[in-house]
């Protein structure tokens, strides 16, 4: 019994240290929770068969993950960029310069990782190459005020769907070269438009969003935007020819890159962040700790999912496609539960996720500034 007690002592201290890291002042619990939800949502979008959303049919509600999970992920990238560059008090001068260098190095690592995941050949549109480009596009905007950032995000959301539509008309996208370009730059998540979500996230990170009053206002504003995007703009799109300029540009459909989707899904992302921040100022923050652990090592969770997928991928066979054949294995719950359990144990017993640690080390080349660890 003495020996067992001796073993429990170090283990207890390690778990206590892990809890302190995950729940300490250097992390935003609401951001971790929202990021964990985004990761699980992307799992669901990849691994579940979904049908078009209909309020009156609960069986269709899983369709909520399509498009919105990845947009939430991108918006949270902006929040993280704000947090690592000073939060509500942005860095300036040399300190901001060093922070920008680190972000650029992180972007390069994420792009390389994204290309490696593309080469695995899983039937998934890998978000990481676009994610890396979005980091670079955000660099000149990091010193701007929240009001300017929100204004820029709104302008991008309204104007860039026209540019994405025009670029999408290039016939070369259908040949081998075009498909290769699309994978290298992550064009399935067109960064010209998706910059709106990252910029809005930076603005969120520049306000005291974890305060209940601010979080509540953010959730309400996000809900209002979602109603406008899916309700008003989405209805305008339905009154147009589906394949016409206005039908495409106004669309609120998932992955449509329309104005309706940009406003609706962007608003949903803001509302989710606000609600997660509100929840995490209550004792429920402990109930959702496993999801927060996933969010704390989201890059590792996302990557491991695709590596495991590549290892288990069966031939298309009678299902007609690799995606359908993998979904036929019903992998969502096993992979999701394993991810939640693995991330929780790793976070409590080891600490930072392995890929997060590795990229952090690479990005620390040179004399780094004093950076907040909450992202």
From TrEMBL:
Domain Heparan-alpha-glucosaminide N-acetyltransferase catalytic residues, every copy: 29-211
DUF418 domain mapped to chain residues: 254-360
Pfam families xrefs: DUF418 (PF04235), HGSNAT_cat (PF07786)
Transmembrane helix in keyword set: yes
Ranges that cross the membrane: 71-91, 103-120, 126-144, 149-167, 187-209, 216-239, 259-281, 293-312, 332-351
The organism's place on the tree of life at top rank: Bacteria
Keywords recorded for this protein, A-Z: Membrane, Transmembrane, Transmembrane helix
Coiled coil: none
Keyword Membrane: yes
Record protein name field: Heparan-alpha-glucosaminide N-acetyltransferase domain-containing protein
